């Protein structure tokens, strides 16, 4: 590990390689450890809303006087970020509208700069850990390989002034490592805020029955227990969305992380029946019909991701409604593929400021979410938050307060009782 963390030790996890386990008991909601980011980058779409350095959300952020693109809480945050921001500051001005590296390229530039500065101060253990992070460069598919090549080209184009680039092979390895070990920083509603690397957190292995959850306090990652843990228990998080059935989860794990999970849930598939529930009819639906509809649902979900970038919101909503109508002839409303498209439709309604439509979808989603996700799921908490805010906007205050309280019960475990999200939520509730 990058340092000694009380109550934890690194060990060789059978069949998984390195891992972490606890050396003392931990209760549900207890903080195992907090980890500062080795490197982090704010999403471009969130610029102006969050401080680039500490990820604090506030109004009246101060703009960088040179590039006019980056925003900070104050001079202290601006100075703290300068060693990283200078990688982009002059380039954004020089390239203007042609400046456009991906978020992965931006993060990679910061990792390279951090490694260089740490080596100059005599290499720390974190440098070694970045090197130890899992790499699957030989397993990367053609699409991902092409994306890596585009990102490497962007690194050379936009960052050559401030960085000494490793050779091409080393860059490909580093991109593969960060793809497998990077973390998406999300807000209270699970919206993307930025990307970061946490070498300590990257030691934690996956399970579809996680013992801990990772949340974010500014740019720091916090790891809290969602199960009571005893000495010797392995620290396990979920790398993926746990809503989906076993086959889908393992497809995602193989695609993104190059392994198959063999946790107890993957062996027993105990929730798959509920997740793939079929609509009750007087004549049972034939298995072939169900299988064909599952193939249709998976194909539609894949295609919808691509359509998001080319269709208008109203066109996307039509796609959701059409697929829901077709799947609804076979699947129960609580089937995960129905829930997936309802969730997309809800997001589109929110974007189109159709609060009533969003609430209608959200209310259908909520109960199955509470049954299919593990306890203390952020997906469930974020759904309560979304609905609570929608209810408040529709002047249905008692329902809004009720939804907020249910969100808080989960967030107090996942984020800790003193987190700024909870403080803001309490303040909003008091004002209402």
From TrEMBL:
GO annotation, cellular component aspect: cytosol; nucleus
InterPro entries in UniProt: H3K4_H4K5_MeTrfase, SET_dom, SET_dom_sf, TPR-like_helical_dom_sf, TPR_rpt, Znf_MYND
GO BP, sorted A to Z: heart contraction; methylation
One Gene Ontology MF term: histone H3K4 trimethyltransferase activity
Residue intervals of the MYND-type domain: 51-89
Domain SET: 6-240
EC number: 2.1.1.354
TPR repeat spans: 381-414
Database matches in Pfam families: SET (PF00856), zf-MYND (PF01753)
Locations listed in the record: Cytoplasm, Cytosol; Nucleus
Keyword Nucleus: yes
Keyword Zinc belongs to the record: yes
Catalytic activity: L-lysyl-[protein] + S-adenosyl-L-methionine = N(6)-methyl-L-lysyl-[protein] + S-adenosyl-L-homocysteine + H(+); L-lysyl(4)-[histone H3] + 3 S-adenosyl-L-methionine = N(6),N(6),N(6)-trimethyl-L-lysyl(4)-[histone H3] + 3 S-adenosyl-L-homocysteine + 3 H(+)
Keywords: Chromatin regulator, Cytoplasm, Metal-binding, Methyltransferase, Nucleus, S-adenosyl-L-methionine, TPR repeat, Transcription, Transcription regulation, Transferase, Zinc, Zinc-finger
Job description of the protein: Protein-lysine N-methyltransferase that methylates both histones and non-histone proteins, including p53/TP53 and RB1. Specifically trimethylates histone H3 'Lys-4' (H3K4me3) in vivo. The activity requires interaction with HSP90alpha. Shows even higher methyltransferase activity on p53/TP53. Monomethylates 'Lys-370' of p53/TP53, leading to decreased DNA-binding activity and subsequent transcriptional regulation activity of p53/TP53. Monomethylates RB1 at 'Lys-860'.
PANTHER family registered for this protein in UniProt: HISTONE-LYSINE N-METHYLTRANSFERASE SMYD (PTHR12197), N-LYSINE METHYLTRANSFERASE SMYD2-B (PTHR12197:SF290)
Name used for this protein in its record: [histone H3]-lysine(4) N-trimethyltransferase
Organism of provenance: Betta splendens (Siamese fighting fish)
